[in-house]
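Hi L., both proteins are below.
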Amino acid sequence: MDFAIFEKMNKAELFAQLKLNIVEMTQIKAENENLRKSLEALTQTTADQSKAITNLADTNAKVTVALINAQNDAKTKPQYGQPPILTNLSNVLTDAIAEGELRREKSKRAVIEKLPEKPDNEQTTAADKEFSDRHS
């Protein structure tokens, strides 16, 4: 950075530049905080998705067991009407779908709640205008 430009400024110009730098630093700090909050929300979402994958694997195992049991029952017992194991399998799948939908909604709500609010546009606009005025 060329500091010679600062040597040519009078005190009022230096003070104005300092104020501008403080405004810019405040904006950067706010942006960093917003990014940190977004990262926290994404981290939580990733954890929720990992948990959902684990639950899906568990449901898959239950379905596999139910299908194996249905095959074994079909080999050993004559069936009249819908086999009870298919009803059980249907119930397992219905419960898994409902649980997945509930988790997805909870995850969406958690992400939305953790997203940072938009920065104060008036402050940003004033700082942008001051910066433009100084450098035009």
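That was the first. Here is the second:
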Amino acid sequence: YMDFQTPWSPDGERFTTAQMDGSLHFWETSSVKELLNLSTEEEEPGATWSPAGDIILTSNVYINELTARDAASGEIKYTLDMSDYALPVFGDWSPSGDRFSIREFDRVRIFDTASGSLLQEFNVPGVRISVVRFSHDGTQIITSGREDGTARLWDLQTGELQGAIGGLVQAQGIAWSPSDDLVAISGGGGIHIWDPEFNAEKELLPILAADVFLPEWTPDGKQIIVPSFISSEIRVFNLSQALYTFSGLSDFTGFAAWSP
């Protein structure tokens, strides 16, 4: 099972659409001109662009293959056979786009974008991994497990576990601060602000556990915006205090984002 759908290129100049017949269409945003029309063996393929916009990964829920294509020509660069993977799901791109992650039930694999070579594996036996996030400098990843409510910090150079934070009931989101010195993790009574260098929780921004979804930092790292899934509110926090709340939104508010 491959679960991703990122139709826009990073610069916003192109987007993709997929159809049930397996065709994947590339469009120019400004003119809505069709740039490419690719026929794939994937029924309604999903797609995600690399951060540089030069590579696009495609797959679908029926074929256990992941295909990397040149985003300009549509040419296939390589195809990864994932038939032996346990429910593979696309995880995250490294910020530079040189690597990407695939998460399985209790394992995360890191691949080289250019060649498709497997670079690393991280295993948490018996724990279903729900989220994977690269740090902004590309040197670390954080994985979170639903069953044990624990987020784990891994060093990508050594492959070693560097730290962990537990008690994350219904963890839904992980967000590195822009400078990578703090991590906001939802679950277990609110937003946990974690200092990965010292493996310590700095503070807890209290919100009903089931009401927390995906936190986002401001570009300067001074504030956090938190959409609330059940109460349909968006809260903005300075560390240690709530600044303001947007109420009266439509039901099930799941996402929020800052302008650059």
